[in-house]
Design goal:
about 230 residues, alpha/beta, 8 strands, globular
Amino acid sequence: TQLGCAMGCKFCCTATLGFKRNLSTGEIVSQVIYPLKHFTDKNITNVVFMGMGEPLLNYENLINAISILRDDLGPSMSRRKITVSTCGIVPAIANLYRDAEVGLAVSLNAPTDEIRSKIMPINKKYPLKELVGALKKYPLPKRSRITIEYVLLKGVNDRIDDAKALLKTLAGTRMKVNLIPFNPWPGAGFEAPAAEDVLAFQNYLRAHHGGVMIRKERGKDIMAACGQLAGGKK
């Protein structure tokens, strides 16, 4: 939804680009129309609005794009197949379901304000109490849950104590957790956690909550995995 990103998350290579501009409605929709038209042998069923950029900071074009994707004269996608991911723009979260009736994913990445503010500057404006409060009010359909995206950083947020704190912070939220081991990039200043620590984190959450998975890595070999997108920097 954007070229570059203004959020400045410390672990994300895209943040090094800075913010360039918002994409138009047409540019956003074309990212769905193109593969639907040219890869007819693929069963493309779901759309997630996520990085690069913060979708909820290009709100009008985001909502217009979702409307086109859901329209019977367009791809006619089900609202259950569309998800918007945000780093936590609280005022826009309150309006999203009213305007688009889509699923919600939140890039949380930390169990406490202390840790989150160090790696995600947006937390200083919208701290966890406000963010989690907005998630609890999000009008989910039955059997639907909010996806909590959690990038695991070695020695920062990957301990069992962090898993315990995460469940405490999110208590009462209808959610599932998507664990994302950090994808390294030059100059990042962070390391990927050990595989055994990732599994231990997952197992603790699974034992005490249930809905948790580890995201399968795709594109890491060409610096195109989650948090590595900065191909436009040059």
